Amino acid sequence: MRAPFPDAGLDNRAGENLEGVPLRGIDSLPAWRNVGYGRRTMSQTSPPPASVNGRPERMRRAMADFVTAVHESYLAQARLLPPAERARLPLLRAGRLTVAAAGARNLHVVATEERLPAPVGQEVEVTGSGDGLEWSLRFFDPVVLPVLGLVAETAGPAPEEVRRVLGIRTYLYHLVVEPGSQLTPHHATHAGTGLASVHAAAARELEAIRAHAAGRQDLVDELAGATTAGLVRAQALLARAIAPADEGVAAAAAATDPQPEALRAALLRALRGPATTREDR
Question: Which of 22, 124, 216, 231 is the most buried (most CB within 10 A)?
Fold first, then answer.
């Protein structure tokens, strides 16, 4: 159920520091390219609940507008792609998302295909939709979810820990808004267009890998699933299975913090030969 959120809510964090945390299978948000909002197709189908003093409500409304703008920009960028390529983008394949806005020291925005139970007590849900994409936005802070207060983040954002306390095992994107940042349309446009561009590049690379992995297509399909779900260690193991004798793949997979883009690049080099360049993919 949807309930008022009178005293709790995401702290009024509001500028310059919007950080991309590995977007499922993505290393980080790339250099931004603003292509505008495209058609204004997004809508919030339920407004953020009001609060007594207005401050939590304003923050929730800003976050709801931010998530709407991220998705709108993602879809605007997706419309530039060929139809079949557009259909392979993770957010469009999912169709319906759960987006958790979780306030620890930093503000975390996590989109997943996983479902959360219906809101209870002081929990709040806002729904939105546009161009075939639907989402429910849920708000969590230490009042609603006390364990969030134990996520110190003194050494920087702790996205894995935040996802752990939320119980989210797979995610399609995870953005971090640091203290002092603003939830502006400008930031949202950059996040949405960058996310769509990186997702599209990953999809193209996976198609190229599959085309050159004769007899191992089932492993590549599993790699694609692990990429979408953000299972980085699984991607490393699958890369080794696809090209077990390649030293470059072995090195990328054995890294302390395996990078999905590096794994795919190593696989392409192994399957297509050392002369392969990014433009050839």
Answer: 124
